Amino acid sequence: MIEHYPSQALTGLTLAIATVLLLAWAYWRSRPTLPLPPGPPSEFLLGHSRVIPKENAAEVYAKWSKDYNSDIIHVRSLGRSTVVLNSADVARDILDKKGANFCDRPRFTLLEVAFDSMGWGKTLTFLPFGERWQMHRKFLQTSFSNTNVRQWHTLQITEARRTLQNILKKPETWETSLRRLAVAIVLQVSYGTQVLEDDDPYIQIANDAMYATGNGGVPANSIVDLVPFVRYLPDCIVRDWSLRFARQWRWAIKKLHDVPFAAAQAGNHRYDHYTDNSLAHHLLREYKYKESRGQEQQWSLDDIKGAAGAVFIAGADTTWATCVIFILNMVLHPEIQEKAQQELDAVVGSDRLPDFSDRPALAYIEHIVQEIYRWSPLAPLGIPHKSLHDDIYKGMLIPKGTSEANVSLLIVNVTRWGGYLISTRTVVYANAYAMAHDERVYKDPHDFNPDRYEAGEPFPVGNFGFGRRVCVGRFLADNSVWIMVATMLSVLRFCKKVSSDGKPIEPRVRFTNGGTCHPEHFDCVIKPRSLAAEALVNSD
Questions:
Q1: Cα–Cα–Cα angle for 180, 329, 55, nearest 5°?
Q2: Which residues are annotated as a binding site for heme?
Q3: Binding residue positions
Q4: Residue 417 sits in which domain range?
Q5: Residues 471-525: tens digit of each pLDDT
Q6: Each residue of 388-442: pLDDT tens digit?
Q7: Parallel, antiparallel, or unpaired for β 504-505 and 497-498?
Q8: Is 159 inside any structural domain?
Q9: Which of 93, 312, 318, 370 has its C-alpha lying 20 to 30 A from 475's C-alpha?
Q10: 220 Cβ contact list (under 8 Å, min separation 6)
Q11: How many domains are contained in the chain?
Q12: Within a domain: 257
């Protein structure tokens, strides 16, 4: 009799029956009546659940695109269809040309449960379309316009040169010095706080947050996204590593938001002349002014915290990772390093270090920076967008409430594209990795080759997003990367480490798996180009 079963067994049996019924219902509901885009073979009920990639997803989808000779790949899991787009043209057409319609975010369960509880819900990156998002975007877009970020040029030059001084003192801790560089710039921009030493506590706060974002899996690719109700079940039943990881590491994101903001509120700044221009200082000053006069507040304290926190983590994460990718490729390609240094010597000379006025004349340095962006996109599948109204693209209806590209597309009605069926509740990714490694656009795309741009190949697109969800801090981030690359090449030489038997050690090219992909640690040797170059940076 059932009443004699242990309660745990009864619960397990109930869940098993419910799961089978759900799978059967989802399978029946998702049966196509028109051709679907090609993809790997599927299984009854499970669909592609056992082959959908959990690691290196962008690379797997790019390979399937070649295997099935199609820019569009389809997979299905637990009733939900996923379509992966591997063309830059689609992302441009939808998100850039029709940006007003594709400016929303979907309500993905992993983002809602994990990242929102981690503290991301109040940041511009994940805010849904609405008055709050428009307010954040308008202010941040103006603050970080290509013109306004020039006020930070002196800061970026100063921090780049301070970073070189630290690397020359302790070359074995070069990665820590680069973390300090990234944190120092964005912390002064966002909170007006200085970070002078490589062991500053704020660096560890940023490190923990970067680990959380770099290892937490890809949004919309977990069991909780497919079956939302499992979010309420304990970890012992739902063995989903991405949800468990997010719950375990949400403290890191919370700390990144809370600690510097609390210091800004209390006035506990390590002040310098940049403090008055910082994002948090400006908004808090306005908030306190209105509060003292009983005026209605436009920005809540949570809004201010979210805006400043978004700048902090996004800038610290991308700047550091991009600089590490640069060093990795200089170690692997000494001939590129030498050519860049020849250009610097010819344009800048040997009696000073480069500054932003040199950028137009340093074409090869620019090509190196663009090749860093292309060779390894930091967010291979990006963050989902969602449409506000029905839209038709090349015969495909994209209904209201659907999400697309840099990123993902949630389709809530049956649609057609190029003769293919894109069925109900389809999620579509625009694969930034595939775009950057498209052999139709780039010759030998897996090679790191800055010369490709001199031959007429286009600069990469989409690294900072698309349309009205494009990264508002892209000009600041790009300036930080450029000045650091130019300054490092002026002063330093990057070489392979040599083993005890005198053989060079090849660096490992490995990346983390998450919403962002960070390069893993590798060994190298960093030394000054010359005594004169070393003296130049130390005299600054």
A1: 80
A2: 471
A3: 471
A4: 2-121+383-436
A5: 899 999 999 999 999 999 999 999 999 988 889 999 988 888 776 788 899 999 9
A6: 766 665 554 454 444 433 333 444 444 444 545 444 455 667 888 999 999 999 9
A7: antiparallel
A8: no
A9: 93
A10: 106, 108, 110, 111, 384, 408, 427
A11: 1
A12: no
